Amino acid sequence: MPSPLTGNHAALLAALTLAAIGALAQDHEKAFAELSERRLRADLTFLTSEPLNGRLSLERGSEVALHWIVSEFTKAGLQPAANGSYLQPVPLIEFRSDREKSGLTLTRNGAAKTYRGTDASVSFPKNTNLAGPVVFAGFGITAPELGYDDYAGLDVKGKVVLIFDHEPQEDNPASRFSGKGNTRYAGTYVKLKIAQQHGAIAVLLMPEPNRQHPSNEERRARIPGSALRSSRLPQQTLADSEIQIPLVNLSEALGKELVAATGRTAGDIHAAIDRTLQPASQPLPGITADLAIVNAEIKRAETQNVVGLLEGTDKNQETILITGHFDHDGPAFNLGALFPGADDNGSGTVGVVALAHAFLKAGVKPRRSILFAVFAAEERGLLGSYHYANHPLRPIAGTRAVINFDMIGRNETPSTQTDGLIDIAADTSNEINLVGAYYSPEYARAVERANERVGLRISNKWDMEPALNVFFRSDQYPFVLKDIPAMWWFTGFHPEYHQVTDTVDRINFPKMVKILKLAYWSCLDFANTEKPPRFVAVTKQ
């Protein structure tokens, strides 16, 4: 047994402890000096400047942005994280559909009719002709942990599946699904992946008939200029995408016509599934689909994710990710203006960069490593983050948490996109939304603890809202699909979302500073605690 401390020894130890605490506090102050409004404003002014031309994926402005991030990671002192480089290649295919030649031909009891445009929107990065019988597969969900499977006892190999969008019981708070929000199964990407795993050759997706919210097409139409923008821009996808079957978005009217071949209405089937959580899947007798996909342009290209590492003192393979995306929408419909993307997502990009400088300036290494990643091509379908999640530079199973910044610079205000769909507080000047707390309450609690030092108002309202598909719309989502605690840090929508007016002068820089300080403390918690926050696949029993 050690000898007891004398009074002098105890006093000396107390003095040393106070000195260490003081030094630690001083290090944090050095870190916070890197999170200044001045730095954020200067960096954001550069990213939104005219020479970067809206940072459209694969265009020169986007390339300038990613090389600026490389420069900042180098100056901060991060280690290159991609085999000796700060750049992780992301191979893409860019394509433009020939809408006149592409189409869906449905044969019903011997009578054939071809559909295009709003009746059947067809796109795929390969010129394709395929045909098969049509099978109705409910919501297109196989979720073993939830005890639900639309494909149970259903043979869809070599067939085309027709499914409802979203998921059952969206207006039922007691649902084993999220109820008032979305689980990860409500997203189209997951539905395509599930259909492919069951052997389907294509998916026909229709709006769920009894929904209490706008369809995806109606939601997108609420954003001014969205239809024109999508028609002017070519599409992009990952060259090695795990999704290898085409999607056809059907109008609600056409979808209902097809479901009627079951002898029941689509609304009745939706209601029955909601009531019983039992599948209502079945072949559609006498209906076959022929899908022709022709592209006017197809080209292979490459962009890059930017990745830098602060190695932890434990030198193991556990990692916290701090992420954002650097791309935006580029020139405004080729009309001589550009989308500067100050909030979306210049704010998140400069936030990741500033935190990289802050952690290195502090000189206090965390126990687990921190990977700073700024993803490419988020606006084209989360392509950079899907690529990283499928080709991780650190073991995906060792990823303790993901802090994803996307639009952290504004006050949330009503807009045509959100009108009537979400309640927005009268004053959001001190509010931050965490999207994804549903899957990791422990992560959310850790942020709440860290917030005692910062004093923001934290909201999880977007976890309780199914209409706007928010859960699927940023780079935390591919990590949730890998069972990683991941949240989107988000200050909310506003009328300037995806508009030429998303400019630096509208940014709330004092609020940004507080958000970055909150992320700093939260990241230290994730890095230094014995147990990481748990991912919870089933939140309701």
**Count of DSSP-assigned helices:** 13
The proportion of residues in beta strands is 15-25%
Q: Helicity level, as a percent range? A: 25-40%
The Rg value, from CA coordinates, equals 25 Å
Distance between the termini: 50 Å
Report the mean per-residue pLDDT as an integer. Answer: 93
- Could you say which overall geometry the principal axes of the C-alpha atoms support? globular
CATH superfamily of the largest domain: Zn peptidases
Largest sheet: 10 strands, mixed
Extended strand count: 20
Which class of the largest domain in CATH terms? Alpha Beta
Number of domains: 2
Could you name the key traits of this structure?
10-stranded mixed beta sheet; Glucose Oxidase, domain 1; 541 residues; alpha/beta; 13 helices; 8-stranded mixed beta sheet; disordered N terminus; Aminopeptidase; 2 domains
Describe the 3D structure.
Strand 3 and strand 4 (111-115) form a beta hairpin. The chain has two domains: 52-94 and 299-527, Aminopeptidase (3-Layer(aba) Sandwich), CATH 3.40.630; 99-293, 3-Layer(bba) Sandwich (Glucose Oxidase, domain 1), CATH 3.50.30. The strands form three sheets. Strands 1, 2, 11, 14, 15, 16, 17, 18, 19 and 20 form a ten-stranded mixed sheet that branches. An eight-stranded mixed sheet has the order 4-3-13-6-9-10-12-5, sandwiched between helices. The chain has a two-stranded antiparallel sheet with strand order 7-8. By secondary structure, it is of the alpha/beta class. It has helices at residues 7-33, 37-47, 60-76, 188-197, 216-221, 226-232, 252-259, 266-276, 342-362, 383-390, 441-451, 477-480, 509-528; strands at 79-80, 87-97, 103-108, 111-115, 120-123, 128-136, 142-143, 148-149, 160-164, 202-206, 235-238, 247-250, 282-293, 295-310, 319-325, 369-375, 399-405, 431-435, 457-459, 486-490. The model is unreliable at 1-7 and 9-23 (pLDDT under 50). Helix 2 (37-47) packs across helix 9. The protein is globular and about 75 Å long.
